[in-house]
Amino acid sequence: MKVYEAIALGAKELESVCPNPRLESELLLSHSLRIDRVKLAIKRDEVLKEEELERFLKYIEKRKSRIPYQYIVKKQHFMGFEFYVDERVLIPRPETEILVEEALKRMKSGDLILDIGTGSGAIAISIAKLFPDCKVYAVDVSEEALEVAKYNAEKLGVAEKIIFIKSDVFSNIPQDVKFDLIVSNPPYIKKAELENLQEEVKKEPILALDGGEDGLFFYKRIIPDCKFYLKKGGRGLFEIGYGQREEVEKIFLENGFDEIEVIKDLAHIDRVIIGRYNL
């Protein structure tokens, strides 16, 4: 089978699976061949080796079973960096880049940052890469997620700048450490909505998705305890889900925060909420 024929076959197989089946077919084939996607055009009339075709068809079958593309190719791009991802961690989303960008805007030399629920390490590592003069603590309750985050930190050359701790929110963070910023993209999907998620999203770790009955469980856990770990004037920055702005803002105000800011994403949905601790 020739390259162009394989692309057409893959696209046909994925028609009912994803919105852009040809693109995903090309991406999976280029991954199978270990080449950049742009080189497929040059090789369009080349005949695939048996093992190359087998590998490609195996990837197509995985995608047909609704395994996310990122888990098949074991990578996701975030903030201009390539992160390793697999089923142990949530796949970093483009909208979470807003959280990183807003954190970077508020940082100064020597700042100490805490990333709660680090997952793949995308937030913590991006901050460490893009703002060299800082120190980052990255915590997660999942040992498996921390293994992925540590691997990414080594791969991207910032392992010495990040302290990884297995911790259920603040449980294992030294109480004498005070942070300038606490950032988090916590689970915020309502428990009742989990069954209605896309099949691909259901393949991601439930721990990284389940925000409790009202979707606010982790905001209610994290924000009240920020006062023990933030410097006065320090800020908490959190990604939020659709329709959660008012409730999370209320939690901030009830716990000594002021100067509340809300940043919208490209779809004009409230995506990041920021508060300054002032007690």
TrEMBL record:
Catalytic reaction annotation: L-glutaminyl-[peptide chain release factor] + S-adenosyl-L-methionine = N(5)-methyl-L-glutaminyl-[peptide chain release factor] + S-adenosyl-L-homocysteine + H(+)
Class of enzymatic activity (EC top level): transferase
InterPro entries documented for this protein: DNA_methylase_N6_adenine_CS, HemK-like, N5-glutamine_MTase, PrmC_N, RF_methyltr_PrmC, SAM-dependent_MTases_sf, Small_mtfrase_dom
Catalytic activity, EC: 2.1.1.297
Amino acids binding S-adenosyl-L-methionine: 117-121, 140, 185
Keyword Methyltransferase: yes
GO BP field: methylation
S-adenosyl-L-methionine in keyword set: yes
Sorted UniProt keywords: Methyltransferase, S-adenosyl-L-methionine, Transferase
Residues that hold substrate according to the record: 185-188
A Pfam family assignment: MTS
MF term (GO), any: nucleic acid binding
SUPFAM superfamilies (alphabetical): S-adenosyl-L-methionine-dependent methyltransferases
Residue ranges constituting the Release factor glutamine methyltransferase N-terminal domain according to the UniProt record: 5-73
Stretches assigned to the Methyltransferase small domain: 96-193
Domain of life according to the entry: Bacteria
HAMAP family: RF_methyltr_PrmC (MF_02126)
Biological function: Methylates the class 1 translation termination release factors RF1/PrfA and RF2/PrfB on the glutamine residue of the universally conserved GGQ motif.
Stored NCBIfam families: hemK_fam, RF_mod_PrmC
Family the entry assigns: Belongs to the protein N5-glutamine methyltransferase family. PrmC subfamily.
UniProt name for this protein: Release factor glutamine methyltransferase
Taxonomic source organism: Caldanaerobacter subterraneus
Protein's gene: prmC
